[in-house]
Amino acid sequence: MGKLIYSMITSLDGYAEAAEGDLGTGAEVPEVHTFIGEVFRDVRTFLYGRRMYETMVFWETAHTLPDVPPHIVEYARGWQAAEKVVYSTTLESVSSARTRIERSFDPDAVRALKAESEHDLSVDGPNLAAQAIRAGLVDEYALFMTTSVVGGGKRFFPDGVRLDLDLVEERAFDSGLIYARYRTR
């Protein structure tokens, strides 16, 4: 059975999307990107909302860019090999292989995906993740916290949900980024 992991880069004050501007720096350095690739090596299915998919589809062709470093090529190859499910009522077609569209989020279907999978799954994007969290589907949370406080936006954790978590791994990077992985009790 695969674990469902919710992971995003967040601001220090807990926002997965800033109301204005970006979330700050720290994740773009090769050391961090290589680590992110290692963290997601066992993920074979990505669950996305439309906006997150449109951001991540970059990885379908990232390996073709000139002078691409090996850690970028390695992450791109892993992403390309994984299954992708995009939850959207508006997206008409996908532009990556191994990708399908679902018109609504069905917690029972995700439970079945987890039960049938020999590998981990990832849910990405605060709106879709909120649905998975409320349905009790998320097994682990991986936060990559920047050094910026952005003051508003979409929170990593949805309002109105109580979670008791255990810290199972942490790491600080020279860029100031902090990685923290929590498991649901």
UniProtKB/TrEMBL annotation:
InterPro entries: DHFR-like_dom_sf (IPR024072), RibDG_C (IPR002734)
Residues covered by the Bacterial bifunctional deaminase-reductase C-terminal domain: 3-178
Gene3D superfamilies cross-referenced by the UniProt entry: Dihydrofolate Reductase, subunit A
Pfam families: RibD_C
Source taxon at top rank: Bacteria
Name the record gives this protein: Dihydrofolate reductase
